[in-house]
Amino acid sequence: MNRYLVKFFTYLEVEKNYSSHTILNYRLDLEEFAKFLDKISVEAVEYPDLRRFLAQLKGRNLKPRTLARKLSSLRSFFKFLQREKVIQTNPAKLLVTPKLDKPLPHFMSEEESIQLIEAPKSGKINSPRDKAIFEILYSTGIRVSELVGLDVEDVDFFGNIIKVMGKGKKERMVPIGEQALNVLKIYLDGRKMDNKFVFANKGGTRLSDRSVRNIINKYISEQAMAQHVTPHMFRHSFATHLLNRGADLRSVQELLGHVNLSTTQIYTHLTTDKLKKVYDQAHPRA
User: 30-88 pLDDT, tens per residue?
Assistant: First the structure.
């Protein structure tokens, strides 16, 4: 089975442009399946074998989302094997993914967003960098992976645009506000190192996702904010605040880099309070 796995992961990376994170999850899932099969060859796998594997997984009380991902890994792998004519029929075709409830994303209020952005105070060595991180996350709604992947040449200070590498290694151009650009320029002009990375650590290497989380946690603690804030909450807040202030769903979809509008529609659930206020103010019999 190992030789087929190598081909499959190459296919995901080269042809499907899957992210390294997704490929790692698929690898872990399928290596676990390979151990379960033991001496059964992949060509001989039948639907009952997959059912036995799923029964074993369910016995571990995995979260529904984790189980759904493992099912997706199996379906994709066997679909690939059928495409490569390794197998004639796909035993994973009958597998049914449990229906998952989409959790509503957590977001900050506009006041909380401003409070966190303004938390880094002047005079401290890392304050310009930290403030620039917060401003960019909130101004653009980009993912933390896209933030730490920024190079200086990706920032157009005249056109107010940044170029980011999104999911599936897809590039997109994202507008950035003047205020965020000014803060970023102050940070870049003031730092001592000459680096192609926009955000670098002391050693001159690219700042990591984990480092950004730690930076946020530090200011959350200092500000004694009630809720736990993650880098992705800046993205949720960005989308929610735009919709609350009248932006249309299609535009927010483009700004977030979502392929499907259904992915963006989850934010409409968060704007109910705003709609109620509009209704109360506008309807004659509200």
Answer: 999 999 998 889 999 999 999 999 999 888 888 888 888 999 999 999 999 999 999 99
Under the banding of pLDDT at 50, 70 and 90, the label for residue 188 is very high
Q: Does 285 qualify as catalytic in the annotation?
A: no
Q: Which of 26, 67, 27 is nearest to 50 (CA)?
A: 67
Q: What pLDDT was estimated at residue 100?
A: 67
Q: Tell me whether residue 172 is one of the annotated catalytic residues.
A: no
**Catalytic residue at 258?**
yes
Answer yes or no: 191 catalytic.
no
Short-list 97, 80, 96, CA closest to 42:
80
Phi, psi of 155 (to 5 degrees): -100, 120
In terms of residues, how long is the chain?
286
Specify the pLDDT at position 142.
95
| Phi and psi torsions of 162, nearest 5° | -120, 150
Number of CB atoms found within 10 A of residue 73's CB: 21
Judge whether 102 counts as a catalytic residue: no
In 3-state terms, what secondary structure has residue 200? strand
- Rounded Cα–Cα distance for residues 117 and 229 (Å): 12
Q: What is the DSSP letter of 258?
A: -
Question: What pTM value is reported for the model?
Answer: 0.68
Q: Which of 27, 106, 163, 167 is the catalytic position?
A: 167
- From 70, 129, 143, 241, active-site residue: 143
* Cα separation, 102 vs 113, whole angstroms: 24
Cross-strand pairs, 164: 172
**Of 62, 8, 61, the residue nearest 31 (C-alpha):** 8
Q: Which residue has the tokens 């009380």?
A: 61
Active-site residue 235, yes or no?
Answer: yes
